[in-house]
C-alpha cells in the first residue's frame, strides 16, 4: 500500500473533495483525467495537481528536463510551457515545480489544461523507485488510532507526531534545504521550530504552517493547533 493510500485509509484524509469522494474513479479505463484541485506544497515554486483517480499503479515517475520527457506526451507538452523545471508523478497527483522567474498566475491554468489533455495512466514508475521502500508505513504508526491520541502519555504523543512529520512533512522540507523540529505537545497545541532554509522562508509562517496544521488536524483531531517559533 502506498504512503498516501495508507494515510487515506488510516486517518480518513481524502485526496478528493467531499462531493467527489463517492464517485468511482475510472480514468485508466476512460483514458481521461480531470484535475480535482490544486494544493500548495512547502515549496512555493511547487504545486500538486490532484487528479480524479490513480495516475500510476506503483512507484513514481520524475522528469527533470525536456530531455527526460522522451516520448511521454504530457511531459513533452508541459516542458513546452515557459518556466517548467520538473514533473513528479505519484499515486493520484502530479507535482509541478517551476522556475521563480515566472509567476503561477501566468501558467497555472495552462498547466492544468495540459495535464488533462495529455496525461495517460502509468502501469509502473521508474525502475529506480521499486527497491527503495519509501512507501513503507512508519512503525510508530502501525497501531496508531487517532481517536485514542489524547489518552496517550506525553512521550507517545511526541512519537506519533514525529512519525507523522517524518512521513508527510519532513521529506518535502528537506528537498527545500530545511527541516522542522517538534518542540512540545501541550494539550492540543503542537509547537514546532523550523530549521535551515525553512527558517528564513516567509512562507514558513503562512502557507507552510497552514499546510502542516491542516494535515495534523486531519490526522489527529480538528482542534489541534500548530505554532511555529
Strand portion: 15-25%
Amino-to-carboxy terminus distance: 35 Å
**Biggest β-sheet description:** 5 strands, antiparallel
Total helical segments:
8
Question: How many β strands by DSSP?
Answer: 8
Structural class: alpha+beta
Approximate shape: elongated
Characterization of this structure:
- The chain is built from eight helices and eight strands.
- It has a five-stranded antiparallel β-sheet. Strands 6-7-8 form a three-stranded mixed β-sheet.
- The chain is of the alpha+beta class and 229 residues long.
- Helix 6 (154-168) crosses helix 8.
- Mean pLDDT is 79; it is low at 13-29 and 128-134.
- Helices cover 31% and strands 22% of the residues.
- A hairpin with a 2-residue loop joins strand 6 and strand 7 (189-196).
Amino acid at each position: 500500500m502506498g504512503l498516501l493510500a495508507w494515510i487515506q485509509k488510516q486517518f480518513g484524509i481524502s485526496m478528493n473533495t467531499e462531493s467527489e469522494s463517492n464517485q468511482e474513479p475510472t480514468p485508466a479505463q476512460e483514458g481521461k483525467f480531470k484535475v480535482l484541485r490544486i494544493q500548495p506544497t512547502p515549496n512555493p515554486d511547487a504545486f500538486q495537481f490532484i487528479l480524479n483517480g490513480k495516475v500510476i499503479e506503483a512507484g513514481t515517475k520524475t522528469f527533470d528536463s525536456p530531455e527526460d520527457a522522451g516520448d511521454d506526451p504530457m511531459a513533452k507538452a508541459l516542458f513546452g510551457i515557459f518556466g517548467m523545471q520538473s514533473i513528479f508523478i505519484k499515486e493520484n497527483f502530479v507535482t509541478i515545480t517551476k522556475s521563480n522567474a515566472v509567476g503561477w498566475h501566468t501558467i497555472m491554468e495552462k498547466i492544468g489544461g495540459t495535464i488533462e489533455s495529455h496525461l495517460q495512466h502509468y502501469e509502473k514508475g521508474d525502475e529506480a523507485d521499486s527497491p527503495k521502500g519509501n512507501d513503507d508505513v512508519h512503525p510508530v504508526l502501525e497501531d496508531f488510532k487517532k481517536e485514542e491520541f489524547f489518552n496517550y502519555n506525553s512521550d507517545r504523543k511526541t512519537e506519533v507526531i514525529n512519525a507523522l512529520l517524518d512521513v508527510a512533512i519532513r521529506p518535502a522540507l528537506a528537498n527545500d534545504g530545511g527541516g522542522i523540529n517538534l518542540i512540545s505537545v501541550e494539550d492540543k497545541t503542537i509547537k514546532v521550530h523550523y530549521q535551515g532554509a525553512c527558517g528564513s522562508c516567509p512562507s514558513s509562517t503562512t502557507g507552510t504552517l497552514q499546510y502542516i496544521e491542516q494535515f495534523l488536524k486531519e490526522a489527529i483531531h480538528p482542534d489541534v493547533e500548530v505554532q511555529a517559533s
